[in-house]
Amino acid sequence: MKLASPQLVLASNSPRRRELLRQAGYRFTVSPPPIEDRGLPAAPTPGAFVESLAYLKAAAAIDGHRLTAGLVLGADTIVVLGGRIIGKPADEADARRILSDLSGSQHEVITGLALVDAATGRRMLAHDVTRIHMRRMSPAEIAAYVASGEALGKAGAYALQETGDRYVEEMAGSMTNVVGLPMQLLERMLKAMGYEPGDFRD
Questions:
Q1: Of the candidates 21, 41, 85, 186, which lies 20 to 30 Å from 52 by C-alpha distance?
Q2: Which residue numbers are catalytic?
Q3: pLDDT tier at 4, thresholds 50, 70, 90
Q4: Largest Cα–Cα distance in the chain?
């Protein structure tokens, strides 16, 4: 059953996700989860793992803000290199280590999405995968990039939408997925929940 007056609620502090929704013309409110991470859920695959994180964020926003209505959107992004999951760097030293590992690599960026009806608890989870081939970075380039501040707060310690794209040689898949919110996947999920994207646009 769809909401009579649909309202999209973004359960995220990410300015990049807000901007992607705005650029696509969505009408939404922001209710970030009080606690960004609630521990690491057990999952058989990286895709299932990141879907679980997205759902935990949506559920935390619903509980923390006592939401009783709205379609709540949770999202989380990870990088996977050789089966190893990489999230956001803890500090500059961690960012340098991550970028050294990713330098010259082929890796995956995976974003999980969760849509949860706050009134009924009905939910849908999915994820998108983009494959990235990053050129080799010199130690000086890595140090300068980390010093710029761009590396912190981003999965994999780089931001494609800022200046990190100059280190990417090839990309297969959705660019908005790498930024943190796969827009085509979101549209498909909304339709699967019984909505049209236009239901959330002015």
A1: 21
A2: 76
A3: low
A4: 55
